[in-house]
Description:
Rossmann fold, 2 domains, six-stranded parallel beta sheet, globular, binds adenosine-5'-triphosphate, binds magnesium ion
Amino acid sequence: xxxxxTLQQGAGEFFxxxxxxxxxxxxxRILSGECRPTPYVLFGPPGTGKTLTVIEAILQIHxxxxxxxxxxxxxSNAATDLICLRLHQSNVLKPGAMVxxxxxxxxxxxxxxxxxxxxxxxxxIQKALWFRIIITTCNSAGMFYQAEIRLGHFTHVIxxxxxxxxxxxxxxxxxxxxxxxxxxxxxxxPKQLGPVIKSQMALAFGLNVSLLERLTSRDIYLRDEDAFGxxxxxxxxxxxxxxxxxRSHSALLALPSKLFYHKELEVCADASVVTTxxxxxxxxxxGFPLIFHGxxxxxxxxxxxxSWFNATEAVQVMRYCCQLAKxxxxxxxxxxxxxxxxxxxxxxxxxxxxxxxxxxxxxxGTVEEFQGQEYTAIVLSTVxxxxxxxxxxxxxxxxxxxxxxxxxAVTRAKxxxxxxxxxxxxxxxxxxxxxLEYSLRNRxxxxxxxxSELEHLQK
Length: 459
Ligand SMILES: Nc1ncnc2c1ncn2[C@@H]1O[C@H](COP(=O)(O)OP(=O)(O)OP(=O)(O)O)[C@@H](O)[C@H]1O
Ligand SMILES: [Mg+2]
């Protein structure tokens, strides 16, 4: 398992000086392409620097291998834009190096101003092929099958959030990689959102299992303490697992680490970032940056829309945003606040409310749109509030009751997480119930009365 790669920046240097040893090794492996044609896998819990490592790998490939042509994809526009933004922020690439290709129907309104300039040359697919780094969603990569493209045009196909894509979706970009010497890199976390599959038949036959998840359950990717003990128990040629979390305050990390990652997440975040709100006036307990705000609101659907909203929760979310953004002592910029709701209707309602008080710049979106993202403060509205449907509890909570969706929602915050929801309903879901118990034990629950099974935790 020799290290024979020369990095662009000179002996042992990386463009990003903060990379840890595991991340550096992953970059070197990807660059050396020793595992070809087997895909290289980079996986690990939220905030462990998977995307950061991908960015370094792209820069190193681009600068070290002059003949390389890289296709970088993610299943959602949000995760794809994030790669473009982070490459831009690296300040390494010269103009004309990368292009962001969008689906023809994508409205420019949703695109970050920093990303917009990279989209211009992406409108003409033939022109886009001149760029050595092409960034697009997995589905939009399909447009390259219509273009005049040399077989094996791409030397590298890199997929971030690969766990969120269905296998056929993943195969769209992979089908474009050079058969002769192409390198495929799959990056993601099988414990975060998987592909959304609506057909029951497709579900029954396993279409909800991503390629990342299926591959990593094959022998060569499995943990093997005896053979690879010195390399974190995985074959370093093929796979790297990251476990140091650089995103969140320890109080926010403890529960997801216990529920989904056998408590193996290490808290490594920059203290000057994650402790900024420990003395915020609205915290029930200073020094513990979590609030669970219980509200017995009402869930509503409009007309025939399948999407739910909850006005009482929307107003409470607006209050918190206002207190965060407009309070002189708080010093949270609007661009550092994210609001998550599991339903599009609630997202719309909250956007409308925030616009009415000049806070339209706060990002509001569904959990899907937040996968891969991070914000200093996150406000989550869980929406569902129908207390009488106890017969079929899972159905009553709909797709809110999904551990992967829960995991993504609660791991986006760096310094503060506020959850607004109805404890009488959420107690029926194992993950939200664990969050309620955690909040009560740590004395950060505020709001309405509690269901009888939790009352004993309220001192
Ligand atoms: N080695 C490191 N040193 C310091 N900060 C780091 C390091 N690695 C990552 N970070 C920071 O940690 C945060 C999370 O990184 P990143 O978004 O790449 O994680 P991720 O694994 O892709 O998360 P997700 O699963 O949510 O997509 C970012 O702010 C990043 O800059
Ligand atoms: Mg990421």
